[in-house]
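Appendix C. Worked example: DNA-binding PucR family transcriptional regulator
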Amino acid sequence: MLEKLINQFPNSLIVKNNPLPSNEYHWFKDEDNHQFIGIPNEELSDGQLELLQALFPHVEQTDGFQVIAGQANAWYEFLFKGEDSPLFKNEFRVIQFYLSSPSIEADGLGEALVNIFEKPAAIGMLSPHQGFIIEEKIDFSISNEELASAIEAFEGDFYTNALFYIGSFHLPDNFRERSFEQEQKYFRFAQQTMLKDKVVSFDKVLPVFLVKELRENPSLAFKSSMDQVISIFQGDPDLFSAIKKYIENHNNTSLTAKQLYLHRNSLQYRLEKFTDSTGIDLKSYSGTLAVYLACLEYEYFKDEHFA
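Step 2, the predicted output written as structure tokens:
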């Protein structure tokens, strides 16, 4: 039943925990599989909505909002209710986060997040699992790498897994509702696909999102053309790790060899062997791009690819 539903509504979303409040989706609970499916409002007719409500429990989008720190209520009204923006002159960004454990106490959570982000303007929980942070742009904002390290410690302290989506900076007067809606969509996608990454942003989510779209579009030849590369990775996962690290290091062989504890010549031999097998030149931009997309498909969708 669920598979037929997804085929009927290909833009639907599936999440394992209570979904974020949203004006864009109708959410239904799949009690047999302990998950939720969200279907875009615009894709549902009145008759289809009535039928689905008869088949699945319909998740009412109640507020259930909790202020953790700062003027979170005002920001909640601005972001989700369309009210006027809070009195805020500086650039800000919305950081959305997901916590696998719903048992974290508000006071402890607020203290930990304030310590990580130093001066958040607001922290609010939309559900027991999901919340947002409003961060003002300052001269020394925490980097994504520093944030990832801090979140690892946070996970250990609170016995939870976490995912943070770092939004773009905006001025309140220039903030566009559509921009935040897009960030919400990327955050939901990351929840489905990229939970192990801990910290994601537009530039990290977009390539994985594109790979998913390419591989699921039968009119495009991406999937079949990358099968050879992905099969090589399947047979040699260490080669996959080496090539992905090599590309992320801007094709720096010495740095990559050092990080992988390999002799430089050993790494060079493996890269050349890969080029000989595939005919793809990793020193060219187009070759690097094609192989990196294959790396992302193998990393995030290998279970589906080889199912």
